């Protein structure tokens, strides 16, 4: 692994860590994740579980879906994990292979852009639109269109492909996987268990699939179809989660 590759991975990781940090400052207050952000994240997580319920019921893909829902996107507090990455960045940038640095940076970018898009939606829903009642698919779709950040939405979907390709490129390398497993104890002692468990769950999920091409293609196809449906102002009942008023 050349120093140039490691430097490139380190630079990208530093950029995405700062991007994520700035978004985190806007999402969190002294009590943790802001209530509006939590409501939106929980609603979207429920929508994703509905969209990928068939994959959740398939043993090959279950862990990967749960990794995306719980570790790359979800309504829990990711601040300890994200701060952990920031703390160990100076060491990571010097000792980790460039491919591993790039993989982590892509995961952080997906998290960062999701945070940014959520902040836009929160401002639109609870600010400009003055949402008073519970969030539903119709309000979500209206806010989605009014935000007008379609290129960022397309980028969010395309990053999923990069995450899959990048993880596939490293999870089957025995020396990297062994290093991740052996780091559990030291990470716990250093107060970095959240960060380590995030990395370990990603490795386990993608190793279990034995190739992520079909999984990633399914995500990109379905998310693109939902995006296009929203933009075309089509009925939301085809993708709204169970219990939504769209289902009558």
Task: Describe it.
Strand 1 and strand 2 form a beta hairpin. This protein has one domain. The chain contains twelve helices and two strands. The radius of gyration is 18 Å and the shape is globular. The protein starts with a helix and ends in a 17-residue tail after the last helix. The chain is mainly α and 248 residues long. A two-stranded antiparallel sheet has the order 1-2.
Essential attributes:
single chain, mainly alpha, 248 residues, 2% strand, two-stranded antiparallel ribbon
Spell out the blueprint of helices and strands.
Blueprint: H1 3-27, E1 28-29, E2 32-33, H2 35-51, H3 53-56, H4 59-72, H5 79-95, H6 98-128, H7 137-147, H8 150-170, H9 174-182, H10 184-189, H11 193-209, H12 213-231
Antiparallel strand pairs: 1-2
Describe the structure concisely for a colleague.
The chain has 248 residues and is mainly alpha-helical. It is built from twelve helices and two strands.
Q: Helical element count?
A: 12
Tell me the β content.
under 5%
- Biggest beta-sheet profile: 2 strands, antiparallel
Structural class: mainly alpha
The residue fraction in helices comes out at over 70%
Integer tally of domains: 1
Radius of gyration: 18 Å
Number of strands: 2
* Series of H and E elements: HEEHHHHHHHHHHH
Shape: globular
